[in-house]
Structure prediction request, 484 residues.
Amino acid sequence: MTDARKSRGGLTEAEAIERAKQGDAEAFETLYNLHKRRVYSLCLRMTANTAEAEDLTQEAFLQLFRKIATFRGESAFSTWLHRMSVNVVLMRLRKKGLSLVPIEDPIETEEETPKKELGAPDSSLAGSIDRLNLDRAIQALPPGYRTIFVLHDVEGYEHNEIADMVGCSIGNSKSQLHKARMKLRELLKTSRAEKATKP
Amino acid sequence: MTCAELQQGLPEIVDKDWSAEQEKHLQSCPACAGVVSDLKLIVKESRALQGSEEPSIRVWDFIQTELQQEQEDLQLIAQQASLLRESDEPSPRVWTSIASVLHEYEADGEVIAREARELQGSEEPSPRVWNSLEIALREEGLIRKAAGKGSLVRQFPRWRWQTAWLLPVAAGLIVGIGFRLHRDSAEPKHIAVSKPVVVLPDDFVPKADLENPDLDRQMLDDVAARAPSLRQRYENDLHSVNSYIRDAQQSLRANPNDEEAQQSLINAVEQRSMLYQLAGDHSLP
Prediction:
């Protein structure tokens, strides 16, 4: 089912899709405005680079407009566009030679074990996270952790979908996600601690 | 449950729910409870990041420019294609291909024409046709002798019309040969002029010899020209039948009244005649 949202120009998504298939420039702009944030946010968080994120956003939409005639409406348009965007980003990351998923590390580091946190309630995030800090923390994650985390926790993909897109096992996807979360927690705690110590 | 055991189940606890045992541990362990709380918060806040960023205006400007360029390129291609369709001038490659095919057809046509010309006059009627014709002409008194200069039969190969006479005059030849052999023989003979084996026609011209190497060669050359693969076979058969004739002749020299030798000679002459007829038959491949 396609989104019934209306753009500022008054076209619904379904109308815009049909017109875009005919090459209507206004329809293209309508679809771009409806989905630009989602696509760009995905590209930005996966690459942690603004320039590259813009470049990938352009590429994703150009691909969309070139292939829109093949959209048959069997899935939601946003799902189709989003999957296309993810593939564009992953291809770019592969071309750069980045490891999308780190090799599973069977040995847990001490910092991942909460035992030492016993008796230190102020070491938790205390129920609030600054969004800016969260963004920064995500950008600071290793590329492999960041990919899995963004796809699962930000974009909402299931582990089986992630495994298919990234090329890993479901177990590996789950493992890397947990490690990414634990790493984020650590980064956020460190950031909070640094702020607390500043005069 | 220990903290380590709870740690093992953290992903499920964060994403789904925890068991009673895990619940009990979390209630008694602030550290583990804190970890679970932090992770759930991270997941919750992260989900809110979806679609939170706005791209700069540059992104759409670039997309728009690219789309316009592509549209213009497509229109240009469509125009060029339209011009090509309307153009009277096909690609030079088209004519080259056509010319090549026509050349092949022309070459094939020349071969066909040449072979067709060779077929002209290549079919020859059976010797029986001339036999019937000559008999009719003789009855009408239009010809008196067989093959000769100025004769009507001149247009046919000599060996063909001569072989046509072999069968009907075979018996007469036997008598002729018998007289000749008897005359040439050094030993006195008891000329037993018995009743003739065959009644010869009045205008019968005895052959000098049943064997005629020139005629044989001519026949074999003709076979070779039309069916090279059969020449050797005909030569072998001709050799055999000529040997057969010589043996019969030799027997007749010794004893002109030898009926077996006479029959053998007749058979041999018939075989030779049939061989010539087969060679003259245009059913040869």
